[in-house]
Amino acid sequence: MTNLKWSTMEYEEKERSTDWYWALGIIVVASSIASIIFHNYFFAILLILGGGCFIMFSIKKPEVINFEMNDKGIQINHSLYEYNNIRSFFVRDGEKPALFLKTKKVYTPFISASINSVSVESIRNNFLEKNVPEEEMKENLAEKLMERLGL
Questions:
Q1: Do residues 101 and 110 lie in contact, with contact meaning Cβ atoms separated by under 8 Å?
Q2: Which strand (E) or helix (H) includes residue 52?
Q3: Which of the chain's termini has less CB crowding within 10 Å, N or C?
Q4: Domain coordinates in residue numbering, the chain
């Protein structure tokens, strides 16, 4: 088994113009006013909180995530995912290589990460050597939606 190390950004940082923030603000305010007109105060509060969260996450800078594959498992920053706790994996090759993991953990059942400086084949071989099943996976719908919205 080959020890592999690489790092990647938490997500791809996107430049947002002031128009993006204005559009978000107008949508949140208009939707909240409509909710208040229809006496749905809880939904209005929920919209305002959601809009605030959108703005907070859009301002936040992505962190660097470190990966290390060794004999025990794959370590992602300070969390070790042992091979026996990984249900399956998939390594996507191509323009944007990525690693997808299905784990047995309740709070992080699905993990995806880009691969930038390590061979896709070496990652695949390490998982297969540890008898982790390979299963074709794709980005989940929420990630695609967030990317489309510019988040």
A1: yes
A2: helix 41-59
A3: N
A4: 4-10+63-148, 18-59
